[in-house]
Specification:
single chain, about 375 residues, alpha+beta, 5-stranded mixed beta sheet
Length: about 375
């Protein structure tokens, strides 16, 4: 509990103690303060959750009966600046009219048998608390004023919670839009760079080897169905590796024995959720830069994580070019795909989970990534 809220409750407890001592003279001397403090905190705990929902008819209706017990008055009412929201006990007339002066002046208003105090949130008046009793004295005015301050604090917390929820919703919406834009960019790269070549390769087998052409066409259909399906944040590692397998079969048909590849994966990690389309761009990059050698995909079970490496033994590259690829420099082949995967991994898991490139001229290239097993 914040210091101002605690001080307000202490003041309320003291005021209620005066009221309790006035109205319950039979209590043993020295005990009324303890009882007043306990009663105040208990009733405030009952009224607080309703008020933290904001100042509405429903929240006011739930809170007024607790506020009446807290003040020990004959009646209590809550209003907004435009309407009487709820009351408990006989208020004797138009409540909004009775609190209008307090609303307009921003100061407590005492008239005959009632006390009206404005409710302020962040310096602006949002409503009023009115208390009605046969005896209105200084102690009651001070107590109602402190209760109104406490209510204002609860309403301010409600606004902060609402603003926080809206900010989180907007952040989540922005994240979804960013992921969708990145997926569109990745698919746009797949379409011109792969689909045309795959269909051309399949066409070349139609007359010479129609059975193989049919099998390759089915492989292409499976790959396209997976890669171009409706965007999802996650898929399983098994589905992602199946996509990679279809891609490699199509590329093998295109390049023949010039392309050699191996895939190693322990079966226990196949159900692990991974970001959709996170491996195929890495394999595609390895094929482009490792043609004439071998492409290796190795998956390791690393306890709470899955470690994946995509490696080629091709010509490699200098560190500056590797940085360009991760920065999404579209002048470099593969830049969009690697940068896209790197950004998505960081967005989903945090900055420590981006791609790591190990490479040097003449030493091949290895791309490393880590996937937490509890990613969804």
């Amino acid at each position: 509990m914040s210091t101002p809220a605690w001080m307000a409750l202490v003041a309320i407890a003291f005021g209620c103690g005066l009221l309790l001592s006035r109205r319950r003279p039979h209590l043993p001397s020295g005990n009324w303060k303890d009882e007043a403090t306990f009663t105040t905190l208990h009733i405030a705990a009952l009224a607080g959750p309703s008020l933290r929902g904001g100042l509405t008819r429903d929240s006011a209706r739930k809170a007024v009966r607790h506020l009446r017990r807290l003040l020990g008055t004959e009646a209590v009412a809550l209003t907004s600046t435009e309407a009487a929201l709820a009351s408990d006990g006989p208020c004797g007339g138009d409540v909004l009219e009775q609190v209008r002066q307090a609303l307009s002046s921003g100061r407590p208003q005492v008239t005959g048998a009632s006390v009206a105090v404005p409710l302020a949130v962040a310096g602006r008046t949002v409503g009023a608390l009115a208390a009605y009793d046969a005896e209105v004295n200084g102690a009651l005015v001070r107590t109602v004023t402190e209760v109104a301050r406490w209510i204002g604090g609860q309403l301010e917390l409600a606004e902060l919670d609402s603003a926080r929820r809206e900010a989180l919703a907007e952040l989540d919406s922005s994240r979804r839009r960013a992921v969708e834009a990145e997926m569109r960019a990745l698919r746009a790269e797949i379409s011109p760079h792969f689909i045309y070549n795959a269909l051309t390769t399949i066409a070349s087998f139609v007359r010479t080897d129609p059975v193989r052409a049919r099998d390759l066409l089915l492989d292409f259909a499976d790959f396209a169905r997976y890669a171009l399906r409706r965007t999802r944040d996650f898929t399983t590692l098994a589905d992602e590796l199946t996509c990679v397998d279809r891609y490699l079969l199509l590329e093998r048909a295109r390049f023949g024995d010039r392309l050699r590849f191996t895939v190693q994966v322990p079966p226990e990690v196949l159900p692990v959720p991974v970001p959709f389309l996170c491996l195929q761009p890495l394999v595609e990059n390895a094929i482009k830069h490792g043609m004439g050698g071998e492409v290796r995909v190795v998956v390791r079970d690393a306890g709470p994580e899955v470690g994946i490496s995509v490696e080629d033994d091709g010509v490699g590259m200098d560190p500056e070019r590797a940085r360009d690829l991760l920065d999404g420099d579209t002048r470099r082949e593969g830049g969009i795909g690697l940068a896209n995967v790197d950004v998505r991994l960081r967005q989903i898991y945090g900055e420590d989970y981006g791609l790591v490139l190990e490479t040097a001229p003449g030493a091949g290239t290895k791309v490393l990534l880590r996937i937490p097993k509890t990613s969804t």
